[in-house]
TrEMBL record:
GO terms for biological process: RNA metabolic process. Residues 43-83 form the Toxin SymE-like domain. One of its GO terms (cellular component) is cytoplasm. It holds the Pfam family SymE_toxin. Signal peptide: none annotated. GO terms for molecular function: hydrolase activity, acting on ester bonds; RNA binding. InterPro entries: Toxin_SymE-like (IPR014944). This is Type I addiction module toxin, SymE family. It comes from Thalassomonas viridans.
């Protein structure tokens, strides 16, 4: 019988690849400058652009920790995101 208020140790997650995710391309407002139409009449034109937001613990599990630089390759109907290899730091000369 399980102990009262007992929390078992988390089991190690075995990640099987590929993992398929379905996302939705959304619209986001792009920053634009304020336009002047006449004396005292200003307006901000709305410019919408497509946007895909990637976030979640699954990114870290896939090898994309926060702060990781990535390279993005765009082809017709395809986007490939890969971790960017770390560049060796230049040696300090004394």
């Amino acid at each position: 019988m399980a102990k009262y208020h007992h929390t078992p140790e988390p089991a190690s997650a075995k990640v099987k690849y590929p993992i398929y995710r379905q996302l939705t391309v959304q619209e986001t407002v792009c920053n634009t400058a304020t336009k002047t139409r006449g004396i005292g009449i200003n307006y901000v034109p709305v410019k919408l652009e497509p946007c895909v937001l990637l976030r979640g613990k699954w990114l870290r599990q896939a090898g994309f920790p926060a702060g990781q630089k990535v390279s993005v390759v765009v082809r017709q109907a395809e986007i490939v995101i890969k971790p960017k290899p770390e560049e060796p730091s230049p040696a300090v000369k004394n």
